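Dear colleagues,

For the upcoming journal club I promised to circulate an example of a predicted protein-ligand complex. I picked one with geranylgeranyl diphosphate because it came up in last month's discussion. The inputs are reproduced below in full, followed by the predicted structure.
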Amino acid sequence: MAELAADQHVRYIVTVEKKKDSFESLVMEHIRLNGAYWGLTTLDLLHKLHAVDAAEVVDWIMSCYHPESGGFGGNVGHDPHVLYTLSAVQVLCLFDRLDVLDIDKVADYVAGLQNEDGSFSGDIWGEVDTRFSYIALCTLSLLHRLHKINMQKAVDFVVSCKNLDGGFGAMPGGESHAGQIFCCVGALAITGSLHHIDRDLLGWWLCERQCKDGGLNGRPEKLADVCYSWWVLSSLIMIDRVHWIDKEKLAKFILNCQDKENGGISDRPDNAVDIYHTYFGVAGLSLMEYPGVKPMDPAYALPLDVVNRIFLRK
Ligand code: GRG
């Protein structure tokens, strides 16, 4: 089996960050904070977080903060949204620098996006999606502020998005999709509500995502994509059914998507690499206990030592 080209991936991540006028940097302009989470978490998983200047990163993160609302934008001067707020909190967790936050202000921003039916909007414009339920619960939990929301209603909304096939969609009645399943299972794991899941039924749907090439897809009839290594495996781990996947075939698929010379991982073999698939490829390998990669927490999507530091120190 091919090996993980860890040094090349580290070099790729550090250079993407520096090449501000590259194609990848330009298309990621509006989601830069999200990209920072993907890149920096990958560096940490590969034991190389020190390859970047922590103080510089923290200053930049805080330049995306909106003190009036308490939320973070995807880049300097961009509007606040829960997705970037979670990324900011996650990156600050990586560097153990939550101390720079006005924690109650940030938590109030997130809690203020909860709707009457328990769902969460992504920002003031109101779009509702189970992604935002997960993001809100994950952020508030990392900040030790879950008590600021109506947790029962938050759980009830997620459960109302469960389908007959055992999966979950973006809204009640929405098609089951591995990305949304991660969000709903993660939300239920964080709130201690996994008993709402039929583990065998969902485990069966999730393990059917493994394609002949060893990779995982996000829903029936679709092509495998490296990112589903994370969305599917993390969900299977949370419901204790990860042994239903052929891990060796999946690891081989991920490793075949590497650019072994210049670093980076793509969605499928021979495609162009990007930072999103590099993160989810390495994260997937972490969930399969690949040697040299730090273990990850499947619910918080952060290295396990970072999550332990947050919850054991409290
Ligand atoms: C902290 C890891 C972490 C996540 C934050 C944003 C978020 C919460 C979760 C997103 C979950 C999600 C919906 C992932 C799927 C992303 C994806 C590859 C969508 C592509 O959808 P299609 O329809 O692709 O283009 P398929 O593969 O179905 O053809």
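Two points we might discuss: The chain has a mean pLDDT of 96. The pocket of geranylgeranyl diphosphate is lined by residues 83, 131, 134-135, 179-180, 182-183, 218-219, 222, 225, 227, 231, 301 (CB under 6 Å).

See you all on Thursday,
B. R.
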